[in-house]
Each structure stands twice: as C-alpha cells, then as structure tokens.
C-alpha cells in the first residue's frame, strides 16, 4: 500500500462510527406486503456442508468472485433469482440488466428480502446487502444504475441460483 493511500485511510478513521450507522433511507425495512421474512437462527458454519466451497466463501466469508466468471451474467430467460443458500427469492429477471461490470446486476430486489449494512473494506463506505433470511452476503448497492430508480444491485453470481419461469421454486432451506 502506498503511504499516501494509508494516510488518507487513516484520516477517515475518526468518521467511521458516524458513517457506519448510515444506511440509505427505506432500505432497512424487512417487511413486504404485511409478510415478514423471518431470519434463520442457523450459524454460518452450518451452511458449509450444503454449499460448494466458493459459494460458501462468497455468502458467509464475504468473498467476491472474479468479474465475468458467472454464467448468470449471460442468463436472459424470464425467471427468479434465489439465494444460493436458503433459496429465498431475491430478484425477478425483469429487473436484471447488463451493467458491464462483470457481475449480474439488477435495478431492484424483491422488497423486504434483503438486509443492509455499511462495508468499509475499500475504506470508502459502501452499502452491502445480504439475504434477509440466512444473512448470506450477496453484493453491493450503488447509486449509478439506470433510470428511474438509479440503483445498481451488483450481485455475486455464486450467491444466486436461477429458476426459470414456469419451474417450481425449491422449498426454502432451513
């Protein structure tokens, strides 16, 4: 790390507690149409035996897959994108678009199915989102998406499974 970058990062340290409590207005809500997503009381380690090692690393160790590596980047069929761990539906395919970032991107999630927290891994605060049910890390929300919402939900493909329209959604995992 260059000295200048280190010094700039250290200069932000006093502000971190103030920034950490800020989540964009309206995004902390976990209810949708009167239905509440009930979080699972399951330790992250319990998911290890149910997931491939790379999916576990993304979902429960907040790893990031290489850009351009997910087959979901090229998925164009109608359907639903579900959490790869607990199978909670997270995105409808009508909200998917090509952001040219190398990761599957969406303009919005299914309301109430994601939770949020501030992420400082790159020193500058970002809004991380995760599955509201199992807590699995999905990706980051940015404000550089297309109109009218201006949101880009940048998701790790390994954190999702695609269910084509007409196929039955799998039962939620517990």
Automatic annotation (TrEMBL):
EC class: oxidoreductase
Catalytic reactions on record: L-methionyl-[protein] + [thioredoxin]-disulfide + H2O = L-methionyl-(R)-S-oxide-[protein] + [thioredoxin]-dithiol
InterPro entries found in the cross-reference section: Met_Sox_Rdtase_MsrB, Met_Sox_Rdtase_MsrB_dom, Mss4-like_sf
Segments forming domain MsrB: 44-165
An MF annotation (GO) of this entry: peptide-methionine (R)-S-oxide reductase activity
Xref: Pfam families: SelR
Signal peptide: 1-20
Matches recorded under PANTHER family: METHIONINE SULFOXIDE REDUCTASE (PTHR10173), PEPTIDE-METHIONINE (R)-S-OXIDE REDUCTASE (PTHR10173:SF57)
Name this protein carries in UniProt: peptide-methionine (R)-S-oxide reductase
Source organism (scientific name): Pseudomonas benzenivorans
């Amino acid at each position: 790390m260059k000295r200048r970058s280190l010094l700039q990062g250290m200069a932000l340290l006093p502000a971190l507690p103030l920034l950490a409590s800020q989540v964009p207005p309206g995004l902390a809500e976990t209810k949708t149409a009167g239905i509440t997503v009930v979080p699972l009381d399951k330790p992250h380690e319990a998911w290890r035996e149910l997931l491939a090692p790379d999916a576990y690393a993304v979902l429960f160790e907040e790893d990031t897959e290489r850009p351009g590596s997910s087959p979901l980047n090229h998925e164009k069929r109608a359907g639903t994108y579900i959490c790869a761990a607990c199978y909670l539906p997270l995105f409808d395919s009508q909200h998917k678009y090509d952001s040219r970032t190398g990761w599957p991107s969406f303009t919005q999630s299914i309301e109430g199915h994601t939770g949020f927290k501030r992420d400082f891994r790159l020193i500058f605060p970002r809004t991380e989102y995760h599955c509201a049910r199992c807590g699995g890390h999905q990706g980051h929300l940015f404000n550089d998406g297309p109109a009218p919402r201006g949101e880009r939900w940048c998701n790790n493909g390994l954190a999702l499974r695609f269910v084509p329209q007409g196929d039955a959604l799998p039962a939620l995992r517990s």
